[in-house]
Amino acid sequence: MTTYIVLLRGINVSGKNKLPMAELRQLLKDAGFKNVQTYIQSGNIVIQSQIGKEEVVHNVCKVIKDRYGYEVPVLVKTIQEWKNAIGNNPFTTVDEKQQYFTFLSQKPSQVTIEIDAKEDEFKLIDEVVYVNAVGGYGTTKLNNNFFENKLKVNATTRNLKTTLKLLELATK
């Protein structure tokens, strides 16, 4: 049985693309996933399954589409990939409130990006863009939409606290 960390992109607590986590947990259990856990209301899930990553992506997408009628980008990482992402963080010396991990659905073929992001900075390593958002993520130009447009892959961002908490949940 493999433990996966599943990230949903673009879901909300209310309004458009509403996705109640308690209901989603039950739907995923009903779909055969084991030890389903969610963390806060923003699409962070830890599951266990005997199927591979691509099947997990497909099955989670299908559960959401069948129940809620819309499609959501789903990114799935193994515990080792998650640990690698944390270990590769080049911004560990800055305030933790400035550290963000933009997880990519796959390794992009385009890796050169130019932008004047003021004092914010980023570094792409494998399937993660590390962001040092000096003024906070809400004001940076280095957001999901920017990286998706430049790299041509799906992306979703988590702060350092959430990234560490998901590893903790996945390794309990």
TrEMBL record:
InterPro entries: DUF1697 (IPR012545). PANTHER family: BLL4334 PROTEIN, DUF1697 DOMAIN-CONTAINING PROTEIN. It holds the Pfam family DUF1697. It comes from the Bacteria. This is Uncharacterized protein (DUF1697 family).
